[in-house]
């Protein structure tokens, strides 16, 4: 309904495609090539991919980016401002902050990824069952989701941590639980819109079983938005994990982790700005990149429809 | 109408009860010995078995789970949220003392956030300069990506330490409210801006906007009279989530600014694994959400004539808005 | 209504070019168009979707989407060039001097503002009245546009009004300031035929009184012929032919115009192709002789494929809408579909015809009544027995843009029912898909394509091939051509008729359009408010309708007064 005007006024893109042969050729030609070309045309997206790639490398193979030891204290080099030698400066014990941020990404990113996988798989399953089966299963599950939504996500996570205890895995699970409700809602609305679509009705009229409708029609057409959601959730999960670490519920010092690094630098806020500013900026850059990619995927998907 | 009202209030009470039950189950039924939580490992080791039992009896932990649940639920109905493990004071008192501090920054943060967010969204769609519009729509994603603990610390660093403009911490006076409120407002503003911007853009593409333009309405009239009201409606249904988000955000913000409010109480209670206090706070937050949503539901038909009393339980657009909530934790 | 006025035209478009910039290409929508409209004259702009007619109409008042751009030409209105006009100047012209009646009334009124205020706003914007008198003049305008009880209507919100009433409100908005020119952009294409006639009557009456020029944009040659002094036929951004309705319909010069006339269902009243073939009809025989099913094997006691009796379907609705909380969509409907024949179910929106189709397809459960298929009761079939029925009963839906799963290839789509019903091996299914592509007139190379790469007509052919894949005995066609342009419409109807001859398949043809129905059906059932008002052989229903409503439907078909070239 949103694009009624453009649909009316635009010389109907859908009917146009049949006419000019060159358009079709291009479409058939090579989707990958199109993707690469559009990437080059959008430097912002390219940058986002680059940032995320660096963060991933840091998490998986930190030694590529730094040869230093994140725990090696050099008392002579305490509290040094960023310089060529110490890109991010050094902390109160003389440890190189850049090295600690690089080594911290493994914990930050893996906790966030675990949270997304947990929240998304639970939430999608709930949404899928509710949307596909409808009836009492739908009302029961969605009432439950409504209740979960009534508790602010971070408080739900904190309740989980109170019960489970501190630690990175517990933080990841707690963050995942906090996102179950919204995932379930999005998955359900997606499944519902596909389930009531004309082509699913056609499949049922064509003799398809419920299972076949689910596997062949509903899942493939609901998967794309869920993947976009996963990408979007990753940014949120990184923020949530680092917030909980900042509050001291995740890793314990001296283990490096982005949120924990900011918390440790907090005591030297007045004298050594870099100890809080730079690990925080790392979080900002990573989240921004993840969100930007998610949004681009989303608009790309909508455009392709 | 009164019947509808009654049904709606009943529904709200039901949601609140369910939220309490879920939280109770998380806190009491998950593995972990309550007494060791209560006393800490050192305390546990220093006490004899009899003394431990006495403590169990004192807090009602010797009873079976369902009995504990019924006691808690009964207490809740009479306003008794139990005794804090950490401070040995009634949880209700602790929360009552903390609420005013949080209310100040939450109110200020919400007001600032909504105003700022709406201003950005309106300006971004209203401006005729493409570059300005692009710039304004680029700001909200930035606001969503910034961790609020870091934002608070940076504000402290620059405003308080470097330039000494505002006090760094504490509860005293209006000045102490400014930085925490700004910290709470920024993620909120970003969410409002993104949602309203999306709403305005889709509304401005609606045929009835073309009708308005065909009447000869000016740009301003089209935006303010026709588009804004329609675009703002979905945002209204998010009010409950936003209030919850601010409350959640206060945990980090009050820790950063060392403010003795509800958020700080939450953080210290979780650190001390003070189960009754955490349960009490969660119930209060859920109650706030439920009440705000109830108000929105009752007010909504007044602003949207299409909605009669037979409104669905699900607010429009809540499920479709794939936008990070303020804290990011509940996306 | 004369075209040979000596004075300058009200609107004079010269060499208009409009381009759209999309992400992947630049499309020329209007390509050097010139057109004059004089005061008091109605000019119809006729063309198919994508011809640029709507773009032209919007370009006049400069209400184009951001992606569109007028690259060349002049738009002279009352002596001013609107192409070069400033925003302020345009705002002064819009609403006051040029009124626009939009296409879809269901979404063209602000949902949160009262009707009266929306009409009065025009006068307030242009300073033509103070708040008080604007309100009164709005009431007058609503009454003039044919709204009963304008006092009440003015206080209502758009969602409380039906589509036809909303379009009258939009007419009131467009005419309240007494503009010199009214642009009506497909003003009735979203409305039922009977309502369409009333709406067009009102536009005509309002503009004739005030000597207003009208630019009527429509896809329907019949509508244009009924209402306009001159018709301009548009194709690919240009006017290919312009003239009086008589000239255009009786002596078309351009091949495109000719193909348009040949395809237009509403223009064929004068030469009722099917009816002439049915001339042997009489009430006594009770059944039209099927012209196509050549040897007419057993046509006199043709066996029955589907017999539905006393079907009832209720839907629960909010009590705020209907106090009983129940809406009866289908009310005691009985139908008989014969082998190798077409039963057309005709009715306006909300008549229950699609619900009836879904009941017969067993996609919905009837609340009462029975359905038998080939003599066997299928009313309560479930599970594998119901799936076995799908071998014999298939569907083609209305909207080919929504009925094909975008993730499957055309070959997969066509083979889908075979797959679902476990018919044949993989290779056999693939061969069958290719064979079917050929049947429906598509190149076999299409098997590898995705629906996104096809046009609407091509997609509908794929949907037809899919329905025929399992060799069904009955295909339910739910408005199979209403989403398509007239020329494509004609091709699809031809295809369906040909397939019936070749395969002996029966059709249940659901349609809102009697003009389309009369081309394909043997028997016609007319529905309204969930009930069947009249059933009979096509010729009988069309030539000697027994029910007043059927007569009303027939009278509302546009283009009846003009005889086309045949």
From TrEMBL, chain A:
The chain crosses the membrane at residues 45-64, 112-137, 144-163, 226-251, 271-294. Keywords: Cell membrane, Membrane, Transmembrane, Transmembrane helix, Transport. The keyword Lipid biosynthesis does not apply. GO terms for biological process: transmembrane transport. Its main location: membrane. CDD domains: TM_PBP2. GO terms for cellular component: plasma membrane. Residues 105-294 form the ABC transmembrane type-1 domain. The keyword Coiled coil does not apply. Belongs to the binding-protein-dependent transport system permease family. This is Putative D,D-dipeptide transport system permease protein DdpC. The gene is ddpC_1.
TrEMBL record, chain B:
Keywords: Cell membrane, Membrane, Transmembrane, Transmembrane helix, Transport. GO terms for cellular component: plasma membrane. It is a multi-pass membrane protein. Gene3D superfamilies: MetI-like. It comes from the Bacteria. GO terms for biological process: transmembrane transport. It is found in: Cell membrane. The chain crosses the membrane at residues 12-30, 105-126, 138-161, 173-196, 231-257, 277-303. Its main location: membrane. Residues 99-300 form the ABC transmembrane type-1 domain. Belongs to the binding-protein-dependent transport system permease family. PANTHER family: DIPEPTIDE TRANSPORT SYSTEM PERMEASE PROTEIN DPPB-RELATED. This is Glutathione transport system permease protein GsiC. It comes from Occultella aeris.
From TrEMBL, chain C:
SMART domains: AAA. It comes from Occultella aeris. This is Glutathione import ATP-binding protein GsiA. It is an enzyme of class 3 (hydrolase). PANTHER family: D,D-DIPEPTIDE TRANSPORT ATP-BINDING PROTEIN DDPF-RELATED, TRANSPORT ATP-BINDING PROTEIN. One of its GO terms (biological process) is transmembrane transport. Belongs to the ABC transporter superfamily. Keywords: ATP-binding, Hydrolase, Nucleotide-binding, Transport. Residues 13-261, 306-554 form the ABC transporter domain. NCBIfam families: PRK10419.1 (NF007739), PRK11308.1 (NF008453). It comes from the Bacteria. One of its GO terms (molecular function) is ATP hydrolysis activity. Its EC number is 3.6.3.-. Pfam families: ABC_tran (PF00005), oligo_HPY (PF08352). Gene3D superfamilies: P-loop containing nucleotide triphosphate hydrolases.
């Amino acid at each position: 309904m949103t694009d009624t005007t453009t649909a009316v006024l635009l010389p109907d893109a859908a009917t146009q495609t049949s006419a000019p042969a060159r358009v079709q050729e291009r479409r058939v030609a090579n989707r990958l090539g199109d993707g690469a070309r559009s990437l080059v045309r959008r430097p912002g997206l390219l940058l986002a991919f680059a940032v995320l790639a660096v963060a991933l490398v840091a998490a998986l193979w930190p030694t590529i980016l730094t040869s230093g030891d994140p725990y090696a204290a050099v008392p002579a080099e305490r509290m040094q401002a960023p310089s060529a030698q110490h890109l991010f400066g050094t902390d109160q014990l003389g440890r190189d902050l850049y090295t600690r941020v690089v080594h911290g990404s493994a914990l930050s990113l893996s906790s966030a990824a675990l949270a997304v996988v947990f929240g998304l798989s639970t939430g999608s399953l709930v949404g899928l069952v509710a949307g596909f089966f409808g009836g009492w299963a739908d009302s029961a599950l969605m009432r439950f989701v409504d209740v979960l939504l009534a508790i602010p996500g971070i408080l739900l996570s904190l309740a989980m941590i109170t019960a489970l205890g501190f630690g990175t895995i517990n933080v990841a699970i707690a963050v995942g639980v906090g996102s179950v409700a919204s995932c379930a809602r999005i998955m359900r609305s997606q499944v519902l819109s596909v389930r009531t679509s004309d082509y699913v009705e056609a499949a049922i009229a064509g003799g398809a079983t419920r299972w076949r409708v689910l596997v062949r029609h509903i899942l493939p057409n609901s998967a794309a938005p869920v993947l976009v959601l996963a990408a979007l959730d990753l940014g949120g999960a990184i923020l949530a994990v680092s917030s909980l670490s900042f509050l001291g519920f995740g890793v314990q010092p001296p283990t490096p982790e982005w949120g924990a690094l900011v918390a440790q630098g907090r005591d030297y806020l007045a004298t050594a700005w870099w100890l809080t500013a730079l690990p925080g900026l790392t979080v900002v850059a990573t989240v921004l990149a993840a969100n930007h990619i998610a949004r681009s995927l989303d608009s790309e998907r909508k455009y392709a429809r | 109408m009164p019947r509808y009202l009654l049904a709606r209030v009943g529904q709200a009470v039901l949601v609140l009860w369910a939220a309490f039950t879920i939280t109770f189950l998380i806190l009491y039924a998950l593995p972990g010995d309550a007494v060791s939580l209560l006393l800490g490992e050192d305390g546990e080791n220093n006490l004899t078995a009899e003394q431990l039992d006495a403590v169990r009896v004192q807090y009602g932990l010797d009873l079976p789970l369902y009995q504990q649940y019924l006691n808690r639920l009964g207490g809740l109905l009479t306003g008794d949220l139990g005794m804090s493990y950490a401070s040995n004071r009634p949880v209700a008192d602790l929360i009552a003392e903390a609420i005013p501090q949080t209310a100040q920054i939450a109110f200020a943060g919400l007001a600032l956030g909504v105003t700022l967010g709406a201003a950005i969204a309106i300006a971004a769609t209203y401006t005729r300069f493409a570059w300005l519009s692009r710039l304004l729509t680029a700001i909200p994603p930035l606001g969503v990506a910034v961790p609020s603990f870091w934002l608070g610390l940076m504000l402290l660093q620059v405003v308080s330490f470097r330039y000494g403009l505002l006090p760094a911490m504490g509860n005293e006076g209006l000045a102490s409210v400014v930085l925490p409120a700004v910290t709470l407002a920024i993620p909120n503003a970003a969410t409002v801006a993104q949602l309203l911007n999306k709403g305005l853009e889709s509304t401005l593409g609606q045929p009835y906007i073309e009708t308005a333009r065909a009447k000869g309405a000016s740009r301003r009239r089209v935006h303010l009279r026709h588009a804004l009201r329609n675009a703002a409606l979905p945002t209204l249904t998010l009010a409950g989530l936003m209030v919850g988000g601010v409350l959640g955000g206060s945990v980090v913000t009050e820790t950063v600014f060392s403010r003795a409010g509800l958020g700080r109480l939450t953080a210290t209670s979780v650190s001390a694994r003070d189960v009754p206090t955490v349960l009490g706070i969660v119930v209060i937050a859920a109650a706030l959400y439920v009440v705000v949503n109830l108000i929105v539901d009752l007010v909504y038909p007044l602003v949207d004539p299409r909605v009669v009393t037979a409104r669905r339980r699900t607010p429009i657009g809540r499920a479709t808005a794939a936008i990070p909530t303020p804290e990011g934790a509940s996306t | 209504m004369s075209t040979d006025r000596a004075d300058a035209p009200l609107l004079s478009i010269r060499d208009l070019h409009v381009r759209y910039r999309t992400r992947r290409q630049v499309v020329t929508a209007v390509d050097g168009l010139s057109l004059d409209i004089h005061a008091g004259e109605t000019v119809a702009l006729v063309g198919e979707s994508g011809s640029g007619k709507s773009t032209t109409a919007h370009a006049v008042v400069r209400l184009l989407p951001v992606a569109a751009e007028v690259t060349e030409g002049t738009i002279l209105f009352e002596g001013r060039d609107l192409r070069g006009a400033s925003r302020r100047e345009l705002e002064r012209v819009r609403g006051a001097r040029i009124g626009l009646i939009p296409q879809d009334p269901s979404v063209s009124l602000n949902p949160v503002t009262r009707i009266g205020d929306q009409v009065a706003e025009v006068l307030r914007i242009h300073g033509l009245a103070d708040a008080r008198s604007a309100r009164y003049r709005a009431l007058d305008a609503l009454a003039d546009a044919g709204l009963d009880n304008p006092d009440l209507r003015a206080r209502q919100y758009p969602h409380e009004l039906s589509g036809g009433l909303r379009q009258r409100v939009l007419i009131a908005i467009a005419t309240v300031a007494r503009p010199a020119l009214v642009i009506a952009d497909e003003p009735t294409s979203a409305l039922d035929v009977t309502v369409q006639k009333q709406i067009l009557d009102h536009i005509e009456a309002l503009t004739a009184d005030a000597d207003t020029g009208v630019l009527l944009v429509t896809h329907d040659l019949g509508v244009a012929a009924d209402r306009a002094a001159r018709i301009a036929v548009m194709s690919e951004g240009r006017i290919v032919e312009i003239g009086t309705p008589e000239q255009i319909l009786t002596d078309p010069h351009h091949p495109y115009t000719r193909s348009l006339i040949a395809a237009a269902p509403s223009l064929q009243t004068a030469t009722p192709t099917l009816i002439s073939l049915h001339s042997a009809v009489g009430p006594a025989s009770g059944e039209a002789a099927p012209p196509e099913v050549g040897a007419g094997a057993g046509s006199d006691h043709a066996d029955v494929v589907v017999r539905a009796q006393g079907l009832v379907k209720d839907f629960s609705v909010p009590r705020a809408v209907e106090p009983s909380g129940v809406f009866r969509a289908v009310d005691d409907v009985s139908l008989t579909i014969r082998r190798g024949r077409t039963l057309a179910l005709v009715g306006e929106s909300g008549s229950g015809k699609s619900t009836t189709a879904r009941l017969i397809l067993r996609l919905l459960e009837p609340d009462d009544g029975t359905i038998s298929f080939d003599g066997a009761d299928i009313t309560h079939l479930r599970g594998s027995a119901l799936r076995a029925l799908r071998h014999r009963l298939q569907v083609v839906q209305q909207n080919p843009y929504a009925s094909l799963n975008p993730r499957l290839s055309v070959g997969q789509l066509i083979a889908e029912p075979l797959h679902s019903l476990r018919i044949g091996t993989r290779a056999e299914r693939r061969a069958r898909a290719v064979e079917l592509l050929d049947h429906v007139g598509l190149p076999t190379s299409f098997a590898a394509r995705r629906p996104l790469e096809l046009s609407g007509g091509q997609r509908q052919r794929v949907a037809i091939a899919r329905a025929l894949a399992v060799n069904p005995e009955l295909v339910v066609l739910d408005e199979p051509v209403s989403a398509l342009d007239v020329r494509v419409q004609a091709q699809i109807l031809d295809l369906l008729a040909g397939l019936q001859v070749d395969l002996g398949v029966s059709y249940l043809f659901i349609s809102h359009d009697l003009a389309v129905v009369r081309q394909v059906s043997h028997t016609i059932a007319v529905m309204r408010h969930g009930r069947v008002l009249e059933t009979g052989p096509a010729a009988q229903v069309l030539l000697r309708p027994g029910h007043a409503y059927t007569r009303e439907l027939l009278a509302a078909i546009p283009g009846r007064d003009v005889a086309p070239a045949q």
